[in-house]
């Protein structure tokens, strides 16, 4: 229990979480049976309302940013937290894209007829109540609502304290739109975030919550996955590698590397480690390092190894530099013995998110694709492309790095389960 909260306040917080979970469970059948046209109408109206109320959203977000700076949040976390008119428009665009997608609910995956005439089919159905635990990024609030609604689910959201005002404003707008279209406001709810205990209340609300999805730091994900009694889908951190092979077109490889690192360094698909083939000319190896430094990226690595190719101003790398996300303008750089060395390095340190290679050798590309174990493998492309919108899925709920049910960007199909429907005319089993 938080020292700042009394036993009575803590019990009140727990009661609020459970009450909202029960309310979500009560309205889940309504959402599950909504027609596609009704869901799309709400999504499009929500997109318009978000844009119309941009000033309210930015004002709430400004309070979070000011509090975050006072609390000493890093620049990367402030970047994740910040909203402006363009970002609000982007969030609204995600809802419009989700509205344009085919509805997964009711899709027939397979079917057949038994010898006795019973017709059977397996169809997609909503999961039910979808709990979401996430940090800092208020856009996730809207993404989760949009994908949950389109897939027939109810969204129960536990955002971070750092985004409390932004999230509250966004949920109020979404609830207003839902109510205006005849839906219960409980189709999306925001849970209290005063203490970390409310996360535990959510992830142990078995029987009320059907699935919980964490999105954030490695610590947050570990807390949810190891502490949940509710089924959890793991969305992993992004320790993404980019390997430059001796057969790469170097200018293109450097461009892809810089794009993955500097486009937006605070997101999970940002490149965090560059691996350089020892078979490249020493001058070309140095070009890679200096290109990163020239773009304002701080290079971490084996100082002696990189000094041997002429690299300067290298930060000594610790074990954490190879295994953790920076989410900042930092990168770990190592020189490896060809594609086999790159594959071995990745196998040791990967988080299973996205791994990339630059090479013009078809055999090398195939070896990398076959042997690297990750949710996404990029062949001659930036790691930045691991994104549900880039995949044509609309907004995503996160990047799943697990191997059960869903892997990679999680969109509409991944937010459904299935059931079997058998139709007979009186058959009995002997």
TrEMBL record:
GO molecular function: glutamate-5-semialdehyde dehydrogenase activity; NADP binding
Keyword NADP: yes
Protein location: Cytoplasm
Keywords annotated in UniProt: Amino-acid biosynthesis, Cytoplasm, NADP, Oxidoreductase, Proline biosynthesis
Family annotation (Pfam families): Aldedh
InterPro entries, per the entry: Ald_DH/histidinol_DH, Ald_DH_C, Ald_DH_N, Aldehyde_DH_dom, G-glutamylP_reductase_CS, Glu-5-SA_DH, GPR_dom
CDD domains (alphabetical): ALDH_F18-19_ProA-GPR
Any single biological process term in GO: L-proline biosynthetic process
Domain Aldehyde dehydrogenase: 12-285
Reaction equation(s) it catalyzes: L-glutamate 5-semialdehyde + phosphate + NADP(+) = L-glutamyl 5-phosphate + NADPH + H(+)
EC number: 1.2.1.41
Annotated Gene Ontology cellular component terms: cytoplasm
Biological or metabolic pathway of the protein: Amino-acid biosynthesis; L-proline biosynthesis; L-glutamate 5-semialdehyde from L-glutamate: step 2/2
Entry-linked PANTHER family: DELTA-1-PYRROLINE-5-CARBOXYLATE SYNTHASE (PTHR11063:SF8), GLUTAMATE SEMIALDEHYDE DEHYDROGENASE (PTHR11063)
Family: Belongs to the gamma-glutamyl phosphate reductase family.
HAMAP family associated with the record: ProA (MF_00412)
Role played: Catalyzes the NADPH-dependent reduction of L-glutamate 5-phosphate into L-glutamate 5-semialdehyde and phosphate. The product spontaneously undergoes cyclization to form 1-pyrroline-5-carboxylate.
Official protein name in the record: Gamma-glutamyl phosphate reductase
